[in-house]
Amino acid sequence: MATANDAGTPLRPPGSPPRSPAKYSLFPASRAESITEDCGRLTPLFSTDGSRIARRTTVSLPERADLPFELEEVRSGLRLKARLVGARSVASEISKGYVVYRDALPNGVDVIHVPTPTGTEDVLTIDGPETTAISYEVELGDKVAGLRLFANTLELLDSEGMPRLRVSPCGPQKV
């Protein structure tokens, strides 16, 4: 069992790789100019004129990690709610246009939402092999007429069969 050394730094289990001394950003600069808080919800605001953005989406993030985030495609009103299964009820932190939930999942996994005018990207920091999978519970809005998997991307379709919201494939990125 690993314990802390004299300096109070936790020791790594025998045989585990050393921690990287430097961390590198995998994120682009945030596009959210600010994030407002109202009634337990966080809403990113963007400086660009949203009327000119195809597939413009409103994003509503929860103040706590165990609650669902919500997306609505503005033109069609098609929407969804998604909740990270197993997330702890940790408070959000807003920093430089990102919404961060520290230690949101077991094993020290942080969740970072990177909101854009067309949705949100959620990035999870996973430091070790203990976390092998994540799951979301998804609630579809009443205007979602169907789902389609195209090029490994899940598409939510409107009543005319047009994709209005997309969930891009995910995968690990090593630093």
Topology:
Layout lengths: L31 E7 L2 E6 L10 E6 L6 E5 L5 E6 L8 E3 L2 E8 L3 E8 L2 E7 L10 E5 L5 E5 L2 E5 L5 E5 L8
What percent of residues are in strands?
35-45%
What shape does the CA trace take?
Answer: globular
Order of helices and strands: EEEEEEEEEEEEE
Amount of helix:
under 10%
Cα-based radius of gyration, to the nearest Å: 18 Å
Alpha-beta classification: mainly beta
Main sheet, how many strands, which sense, barrel? 6 strands, antiparallel
Give the beta-strand count.
13
Number of helices: 0
What is the overall pLDDT average? 85
- The first-to-last residue Cα distance is 27 Å
Poorly predicted segments: 1-5
Strand order of the largest sheet: 1-2-3-4-5-10
Overview of the molecule:
- With 175 residues, the chain is mostly beta strands.
- It has a domain at 32-46 and 54-143.
- It is 0% helix and 43% strand.
- The protein contains no helices and 13 strands.
- The chain has strands at 32-38, 41-46, 57-62, 69-73, 79-84, 93-95, 98-105, 109-116, 119-125, 136-140, 146-150, 153-157, 163-167.
- A six-stranded antiparallel sheet has the order 1-2-3-4-5-10, with no helix packed on it. A four-stranded antiparallel sheet has the order 6-7-8-9, with no helix packed on it.
- Strand 11 and strand 12 form a beta hairpin.
- It is globular and about 55 Å long.
- The two termini are 27 Å apart.
- 19% of the residues are buried.
- Mean pLDDT is 85; it is low at 1-5.
At a glance:
With 175 residues, this protein is mainly beta.
